[in-house]
Write a structure and sequence with these properties.
single chain; 118 residues; 4 helices; 6 strands
Length: 118
């Protein structure tokens, strides 16, 4: 079971880790099936609070847009896998992660993702 957290802005991955107000959290089992998913509205916009949430929620993977090196290194030091500089719809990022085809720096296009899974 892995827990994934994605800072979101509407239907897209938030462009900046430190300025996100909402996060999408989901658990996936080894076969890639969703076990639990929810959107959490953060009480305060703060990279420190977001890092604290990531640790207290026992998140294994963070998929985000831009992230300062300080926070990237901190999360990596805490053994959290970070896919950074990912741009596009968060649903497409989840799909790519579950397909083992997500990479840092990916620019995702909803139309292409839909056509892949049809």
């Amino acid at each position: 079971m892995k827990k994934i957290l994605i800072p979101i802005f509407g239907n897209d991955i938030s462009p900046r880790f430190d300025l996100t107000a909402e996060v999408y959290i989901l658990n996936v089992d080894k076969s890639g099936h969703y076990q639990d998913e929810r959107i959490v509205v953060l009480p305060q916009i703060s990279a420190e609070h977001l890092c604290h949430l990531i640790l207290t929620e026992n998140v294994h993977v963070v998929i985000c847009g831009g992230i300062e090196d300080e926070y990237y290194q901190y999360l990596a030091w805490k053994r959290i896998t970070v896919y950074d500089s990912v741009i596009g719809p968060w649903q497409a990022a989840v799909s790519r992660y579950l397909d083992n085809s997500l990479h840092s720096g990916d620019i995702l296009d909803k139309l292409k993702e839909d056509s892949i899974h049809e």
